[in-house]
Amino acid sequence: MEVQIVCTKLIKPSVPTPPHLRTLKLSPVDQVQYPVKTAILLYYSADGSTGRTGKVERRRMDRLETSLSETLTRFYPLAGRYIKDGNWVDCNDEGVEFFVAEVKGCRLSEFLSRRDEMIDQVSHLAGGEFTSPVVSIQISMFDCGGLVMGFRLCHYLFDAFSSISFITSWATASRQGMDDHEIWPTFGVANSILAGAANDLRLPKMKPLPRLMGTDNGMTKRIVFDGAEISALRAISHDPSFPRQPSRVEVVTALIWRARMRVSRAKHGRLRTSLAAHTINLRPRIVPPLPRWSIGNLQSRVTTTFMAAADNDQLPQLKDLVGLLIDSFTKSKETVVRREDVFASSLQKRNELHEAAEKGEVDVYMFTSWCRFPFYQVDFGWGKPVWLSRIHWAYEAATLLDTEGGDGIEAWLSFNKKDMPLFLQDKDILAFTSNPRSKI
Length: 440
Hints:
Helix 2 crosses helix 4 (160-176) and helix 8 crosses helix 9. The strands form four sheets. The protein has a six-stranded mixed sheet with strand order 1-6-7-8-3-15. A six-stranded mixed sheet has the order 9-17-16-14-10-12, sandwiched between helices. A hairpin with a 4-residue loop joins strand 7 (135-142) and strand 8. It is α+β, with helices and mostly antiparallel strands. Helix content is 32%, strand content 24%. The protein has helices at 28-31, 54-71, 108-113, 160-176, 189-200, 214-217, 227-237, 248-268, 318-334, 342-359, 420-424, 427-432; strands at residues 2-11, 23-25, 37-44, 81-83, 88-90, 96-104, 135-142, 147-154, 218-225, 274-281, 286-287, 299-306, 337-338, 363-369, 387-389, 397-402, 409-416.
């Protein structure tokens, strides 16, 4: 497969940003995010045509560019530039980076049928990783008429909720125009509500979690849990003492966590204490409630701890880990976070994880779930996506995504190269996933 960039331009807001909105100061929560652009790729099959035609292609690109320009009048910081030294965004309307690419030597259907083999190629469908714009977008067109929309969004400004809000807003504008458009984003909310608390708290120099440097030390693979496999997992991991049935995310997290424990035990010769940390959206927990479409990093982490006993090297049962996760998630959902405490809560969780990782005696496993975010509902006017993917991630983490049907889970795993083969050969991973053998 060959991906060739055929057009590069900057898309500016259709209406200039007013002078009083030109500066967006990042909140302390935004400032401690990883210095990366998060990648999101949406795959659209051909809309019944026999292939690409110049007229259809031009009409589609015109619609995308016009609607993006209109959308940027509301999401105006996206067309600006991040100023690292001052931790702010200059909302100067310089524009969103917009690439158009042609994909040769492969039909989209062929790509999707070989998606496990094509993992390393996916990054070519999302340009702008190291460029300065806050957002970079790449439209990759296949000869068959299918296309991939690749987004790279600066993590300093976007969490998952913010990302899907922007993408949904643009898709709605492309499909039906800006009239009756319900998404009105609010920027700077986190900074304004935290201003008092931030003045009382010294922002520490955050130490990042262990990083995988490119493909030399790390690798990314995907494993798929279909609906039937998840139902089986939920059945065997439930216990009458649990306050509720385990969720899809909880049982998949527990299985991955347990497999990683087995890898760690093989490496270290003993079972070690470990933490499973899930990123969560704080918006539903904040009181008084924030505006519905508040943009920024309004997130924290739910941390679940398994304490290893010095005289016992036996792995915990799956239901034991599920029980721990249910307890952590239930307490988190029941916890109300006051607006003025959002920053302190988020910072405390980050510091706990950093301290645990620095000690070297505790394994820290990072998880993010995008399940139930409506990525598979994003329709720009030619149907809904047939697949959602990530790309290689520079940090050790597991990202959980919905499958197209909504009842399964795809886990995108970025692990150390030495650990990945052992993980993929884990007997439980082999037993409960649809595609592990294709990755070994």
